[in-house]
């Protein structure tokens, strides 16, 4: 039995659909911004899932009310503490008998979805079932935000898969055949490295300019992948942040703490009065990490390559040191005085002294010829059925 509110909602949408899809979209936007919104959010779960799938379909179609629709979805997920059913994609196959790679809290498998090669990032979370479900939910909420991104230098996200690695879950994104940025640069030494850096800055600019702003929180070479057109794509948004907030649970289960300490701004490494207080990543700490990523791009090595993590902390917090200017071949790779000055500004000790990423991007721009390409994301909406019949 459908609730009266849901039936009323269907009737309004059916009437609008008689005209055209734009009309239906406009009607939907009006409904979710009216006072009915709060009541819609409290509908029974099956009805709510139908509404969410419909709203997401319009987001995927890049309709003009996209921002309002995304806000509605986020509020619904937060209020009801549910994951939308459209996030779970059926029909994913895995390729091969072993994972092709793995990081701090996940293994990466190659897979296939609708004839396309995809990457399946399987969270390595073991422990009591309720605890695992809670952690997965936190990851998925971050992934939901990731799903809405639409930029040529951001790795698209298709959805989750809950039935291939049971009881573990996987996040699905397109397979990046050229691997991570640092391995790519090591093998393709003649790549235009300034162009790579500018691509990453452009993706970061997009994230920082979103409303509300999105902070990456774990920017570094291994979290930038290279697509089939040899363009950089930023990956792994917010997942590290969830891993951090869930560190206690993850520590008891699986997290091996393979850290990204040397990309982290000093304020994130400082000891606070209250040891349990969590220092948040910000756009400023992303800019700091971006400066470190530039070191990787020019040298093919992480910042402070000769130092252990402990020595890096001492260098940063006690001696306020930063990486020194890399020798040849960095200069031939594009590290001139302008670029070096910019990187040092990104490393300013005080967050407020660092430039915004837009200023960074604009300062790199005159030195590179970069042709922005259109997003080639496949919306994968074909499996979303029309709910209003
Ligand atoms: N979409 C993708 N396409 C191709 N390779 C990928 C994709 N996603 C991840 N990989 C590869 O899988 C490996 C593991 O990635 P993962 O993000 O789990 O680890 P990491 O970035 O090294 O560390 P961390 O877990 O701290 O992010 C990396 O070598 C990465 O290049
Ligand atoms: Mg990664």
UniProtKB/TrEMBL annotation:
InterPro entries recorded for this chain? Answer: Kinase-like_dom_sf, Prot_kinase_dom, Protein_kinase_ATP_BS, Ser-Thr/Tyr_kinase_cat_dom, Ser/Thr_Kinases-Pseudokinases, Tyr_kinase_AS
**Binding, ATP:** 121
Q: Which UniProt keywords apply?
A: ATP-binding, Kinase, Nucleotide-binding, Transferase
- What's an example of a GO molecular-function annotation for this chain? ATP binding
**What positions does the domain Protein kinase occupy?**
94-368
What name has this protein been given in UniProt?
A: Kinase-like protein
Which species does the entry assign this protein to? Rickenella mellea
């Amino acid at each position: 039995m459908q609730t009266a509110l849901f039936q009323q909602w269907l009737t309004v949408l059916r009437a609008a659909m008689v005209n055209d899809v734009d009309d239906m979209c406009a009607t939907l936007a009006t409904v979710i911004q009216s006072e009915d919104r709060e009541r819609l959010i409290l509908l029974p779960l099956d009805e709510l899932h139908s509404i969410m799938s419909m709203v997401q379909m319009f987001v995927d179609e890049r309709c003009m009310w996209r921002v309002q629709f995304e806000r509605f979805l986020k509020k619904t997920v937060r209020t009801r503490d549910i994951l939308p059913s459209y996030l779970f994609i059926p029909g994913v196959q895995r390729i091969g008998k072993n994972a092709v790679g793995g990081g701090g809290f996940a293994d990466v498998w190659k897979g296939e979805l609708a004839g396309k090669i995809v990457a399946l990032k399987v969270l390595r979370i073991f422990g009591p079932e309720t605890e695992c479900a809670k952690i997965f939910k936190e990851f998925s909420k971050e992934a939901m935000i990731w799903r809405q991104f639409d930029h040529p230098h951001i790795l698209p996200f298709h959805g989750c898969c809950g039935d291939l690695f049971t009881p573990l879950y996987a996040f699905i994104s397109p397979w990046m055949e050229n691997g991570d940025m640092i391995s790519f640069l090591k093998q393709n030494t003649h790549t235009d490295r300034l162009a790579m850096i500018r691509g990453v800055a452009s993706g970061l600019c997009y994230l920082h300019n979103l409303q509300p702003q999105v902070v990456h929180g774990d920017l570094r070479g291994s979290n930038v992948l290279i697509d089939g057109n040899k363009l950089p794509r930023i990956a792994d948004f917010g997942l590290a942040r969830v891993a951090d907030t869930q560190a206690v649970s993850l520590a008891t289960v699986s997290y091996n703490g393979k850290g990204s300490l040397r990309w982290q701004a000093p304020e994130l490494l400082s000891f606070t009065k209250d040891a349990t207080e969590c220092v948040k990543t910000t756009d400023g700490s992303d800019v700091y990490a971006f400066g470190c990523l530039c070191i990787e791009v020019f040298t093919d090595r992480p910042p402070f390559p000769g130092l252990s993590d402990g020595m890096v902390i001492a260098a940063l917090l006690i001696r306020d040191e930063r990486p020194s200017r890399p020798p040849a071949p960095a200069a031939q790779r594009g590290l001139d005085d302008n670029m070096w000055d910019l990187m040092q500004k990104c490393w300013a000790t005080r967050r407020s002294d660092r430039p915004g990423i837009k200023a960074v991007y604009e300062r790199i721009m005159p030195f590179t010829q970069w042709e922005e390409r259109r997003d080639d994301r496949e919306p994968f909406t074909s499996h979303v059925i029309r709910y209003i019949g």
